[in-house]
Amino acid sequence: MISQDLDSFLSPRSIAVVGASSNRNKIGAVPVRYLVEHGYAGEIYPINARAAEIEGRAAYASLREVGRPIDLAIFAIPAAGADAALDDAIAAGVRNIVVFSAGYAETGPAGEAAQRAFADKARAAGIRVLGPNCLGFMNVARSIYATFSPVVSTGLARPGKVGIVSQSGAFGAYAYGMARERDVGLSMWITTGNESDIAVADCIAWMARDPATQVIMAYLEGCRDGAGLRQALDLARAAGKPVVVVKVGRTSLGAITAASHTAALAGDDAAFEALFRQHGAWRARTIEEFFDVAHSLAVSGLPANDRVGLLTVSGGVGVMMADDAADAGLDVPELPSSAQQSIRARVPLAATRNPVDLTGQVTSEPEVLEVAARAMLGEAGHGSLLVFLAAFGSTAAMQDIQRSLGRDLRRDFPGRVVIFSAQVPAEQHRAIEASGCLCFADPARAIRVMAAMKFFIGSARASATNGSPANASTADSVAFHAGPYNEAEAMEVLREAGIPVLPARRAGSRDEAIAAASAIGFPVAMKILSRDITHKSDVGGVALNIHDEAEAGAAHDRVVSAAVDAAPDARIDGVLVAPMLRGGVECILGARRDPVLGVVVMLGSGGVNVELLGDVALRLAPVDHRQAREMIGELKTAPLLHGYRGAPMADVAALADAIVQLSRFALSAGDSLESVELNPFVVRAEGQGAVALDAVLLTRAPASDPASVREAVIATLPLFEMARMRASNTARKHPTQGYAGDSPASRMRWVNQFTHTRRLRSPEDKEVVTPNNDTLFTNAWLDLSAGPLVLDVPEMGRRYWVLGFLDAWTNPWAYAGRRTTGGDAQRLFIHGPDWAGEVPADMHRISAPCNDVWVIGRILVDATAEDLAKVHALQDRFAIYRPDGTPALSRVDTLLDNRDTGVPQAAEYQRVLRTMLARNPPARPLPGWPPAAEPLQQVLSDVYTELRDVAQPSQLGGGWTTAVNVRTTFGDDYLTRARVARNWIGTLGIEEAMYIMAEVDAEGEALTGARRYVLRFAPDNALQVGAFWSITLYRRSDCLLVANPIGRHSIGDRTQGLRRDPDGGLSICIQADDPGPGRNWLPAPANAGFYLTLRLYQPQRAHLEGTFAYPPVRRVD
């Protein structure tokens, strides 16, 4: 999953340069010089132990010596010194690092291991990394030049609307120079290099919400995270920001070269082509087209519609333009008769259908140009107008007319694109573009730009109408048996998955084959049945048009003998007998798992056409019905399905259904599927359906080695724990509707309703681990599969409150509350990934990434009867209903009927996940899923124990560590996500609440009630929060509150009776026995392990940036 949260990285308020130098010939000198010369407004800290100052800025021996917050550190040092510099950065609380250093994954296995170790250490410390082996980035709008590229020294590109991200530094530098020469205004320029952390997808996602960026250009050599790239492109499309892509590696040689260049996986180019088309990115084939399209979009924007008008002063060029437009698939409609008449009234000899040819008359009467243009943009309603002026456009008089005409047309026809084609000087180009129009010397380039604009219009329209199917429902999880499948077995698996297959009978002998043929009815087909023979026709293993029993016996002998002769080692399972199917249109359906992009679904024309003509259409799964019909329409042989030359119409709806079902089947198979092919797949006459006549199913054995199974458990554990949580805190019985199931013991529960805790959590509460002791909870489990819901929130005033929205994978992706939406009464409109529509203007929109959502609310309360009553009254006013005002109450099978929190049984784990994965598909393919059953139980036991028992080291010093460093998503940090789900499920992101943990003391020893500890906050080191803070103690063994003599489970800034130290500081005694009067006592369990959680609600900058010094947990016995 991608991260959009790169603000402090790409817009840093302070920058340190490690390896800074006063020698201008060294790389370390360049970023300091650029930042100073080009007016960076933030703090600059050169890091060089042998220099007093560099470029007029004081130099420091280390990052730690700076002693102030550092948003970004640039490593301009050799790779050999990068690890020590990273340790320095961690100690200094640096948040982000750009690594120029080469010598990592691009050099081979040893470099790859070093890069992985560097990235893992940075990730564990919460540090984001750009690179290594990159040229850095430039935030042009903010004068941030975090790069050493010499292209900057030769001149700056002007600020503008276009953002560029490139995996290749060399191409990135070339693109920057090209942008400068073509006067393309830039907002952002980023090179990602080896992408140990931040990838192109992250940058696209960030630019999708960057107000300075309106058009995104991306250069790709490969991709490791296809799901992340898809998500980023969807974000850009939803934001209305076109993405123009150059993806190299279209040939096998190009792919190998690209992989060796930046250590990126190239993937299948046809699959990338499908990805770009599916997710709204235009793939440019040349560098010229790359810049033409992006710059044109930045200058003119998208037209209001995709109808194109062609206006020319040359009939011959008009024909060429029309041919190019037809090849590009543009809509060049004939002008309405009224528009044609108005043009002919001024130019009697004009050709007025479209293209419109004004002939040479325009040279003597240039005003007719405006007459025709207004008729085409007005009466004809064209969204784009291409005006070819030939040599006439180069004259001074015509250049004046172009400028005024362009300005007037853009003013009078907003939302229309006007393009002139003429050979004009650079000054004229700039003047035309200043009015929002475009100019190209070659009209063919303009045609390609208009084709791109049509693509973006269509993509946006389809997305708005249908939404994205990226999380569409899948079939139940499929479990394959070990080893290959023969045709009969493959057809049965597909039939069970809802894919239509031709009924057939297996026969193990000659007599059985004859009997099967007679039972089916002649004529029949007979095929060899062997899991070792994929292409049966190639070995003579197919007999067709068998008309009687004698032919059936002979056919059996013939196909078996041919198979044995051709493949003597093949296992022969008999023959398969099926009826002969006459008529219909043959196609090929298939799906395969691309290692980078996931499941690729293929539709091809039947017979030799698929190979001879390359007649295929591809999409990445999941595929919905709209996309399935698009695939059908893209085939060159599509007319055969639509009654070509008097043939009956084919059942296109049945074909689309089969494509969608195959997509679901392939997704549900997980990593176990290699490929599946239905060939031929016959589409019968309309209303008669479609059916697979043959199938090949290639699978991989489930992961069985403990490391792979552990990886699968770590990746899926949060989903299982969310199922547990839903089962434990949803209601079996409704006050008026009764039980959700047919008995109190049913697993059915009520959802789409709020439930509330009415008292602060105590040791008796065991449903939620690591619960807070400061707020009442207001929770709701939502099922969005039936459509959007509206959540009513009463006026909360100044009281702290928050509703955190968690997806089924525990990502806290959205919030409503005092920090984000305020304290006024409000309505929240929440919808799932498959819904598209208009949200009422008076509601806050919350777009859920999946249909299962946990809303976990917290409302601050004082532990008094009066304040509890006030909060109860507020809780009672929370409500959920459908947009039309009808009740939203619904039932759901929670899959579990117990409240266990220990190690689950392997069978239960797999059963629950089959359904949870179907309802909430992962953002990317799960590693090692599904695992083999045999080792799963032991791995579950090991992982659950490890996540609960292993004490975390003191990352922040003094015993403290950051338990969670998530904002809206855990991304690919599966281990942290699993640890949070096991121990602190329901955790919010750090901007809402930070959770600082102490499982060890200042000496690194595990905390235990057998010892005494003191925690002292100095008077000048108070915690900095916008709401409140508290420290809560939990027993290590079960992560629950501990009963104690005074009933105190937490201490915070709201605790009554706290005593300050004489100097104004605050000391807290943490021990099992009473420390005596006048002490602030937080009781610990006698002789048992425990841990502390410091909660900071609405933490301020020092905490978010990691610069706050937390007091040590000191032993005092």
UniProtKB/TrEMBL annotation:
<feature type="domain" description="ATP-grasp">
    <location>
        <begin position="491"/>
        <end position="527"/>
    </location>
</feature>
<dbReference type="InterPro" id="IPR013815">
    <property type="entry name" value="ATP_grasp_subdomain_1"/>
</dbReference>
<dbReference type="Pfam" id="PF06742">
    <property type="entry name" value="DUF1214"/>
</dbReference>
<dbReference type="Pfam" id="PF13607">
    <property type="entry name" value="Succ_CoA_lig"/>
</dbReference>
<keyword id="KW-0547">Nucleotide-binding</keyword>
<dbReference type="InterPro" id="IPR016102">
    <property type="entry name" value="Succinyl-CoA_synth-like"/>
</dbReference>
<dbReference type="Pfam" id="PF19045">
    <property type="entry name" value="Ligase_CoA_2"/>
</dbReference>
<keyword id="KW-0067">ATP-binding</keyword>
<dbReference type="InterPro" id="IPR032875">
    <property type="entry name" value="Succ_CoA_lig_flav_dom"/>
</dbReference>
<comment type="similarity">
    <text>In the N-terminal section; belongs to the acetate CoA ligase alpha subunit family.</text>
</comment>
<dbReference type="GO" id="GO:0005524">
    <property type="term" value="F:ATP binding"/>
</dbReference>
<dbReference type="InterPro" id="IPR010621">
    <property type="entry name" value="DUF1214"/>
</dbReference>
<dbReference type="InterPro" id="IPR010679">
    <property type="entry name" value="DUF1254"/>
</dbReference>
<dbReference type="InterPro" id="IPR043938">
    <property type="entry name" value="Ligase_CoA_dom"/>
</dbReference>
<dbReference type="InterPro" id="IPR036291">
    <property type="entry name" value="NAD(P)-bd_dom_sf"/>
</dbReference>
<dbReference type="GO" id="GO:0043758">
    <property type="term" value="F:acetate-CoA ligase (ADP-forming) activity"/>
</dbReference>
<dbReference type="GO" id="GO:0046872">
    <property type="term" value="F:metal ion binding"/>
</dbReference>
<dbReference type="InterPro" id="IPR037049">
    <property type="entry name" value="DUF1214_C_sf"/>
</dbReference>
<protein>
    <submittedName>
        <fullName>Acetyl-CoA synthetase</fullName>
    </submittedName>
</protein>
<dbReference type="Pfam" id="PF13549">
    <property type="entry name" value="ATP-grasp_5"/>
</dbReference>
<dbReference type="Pfam" id="PF06863">
    <property type="entry name" value="DUF1254"/>
</dbReference>
<dbReference type="InterPro" id="IPR037050">
    <property type="entry name" value="DUF1254_sf"/>
</dbReference>
<dbReference type="Pfam" id="PF13380">
    <property type="entry name" value="CoA_binding_2"/>
</dbReference>
<dbReference type="InterPro" id="IPR003781">
    <property type="entry name" value="CoA-bd"/>
</dbReference>
<dbReference type="InterPro" id="IPR011761">
    <property type="entry name" value="ATP-grasp"/>
</dbReference>
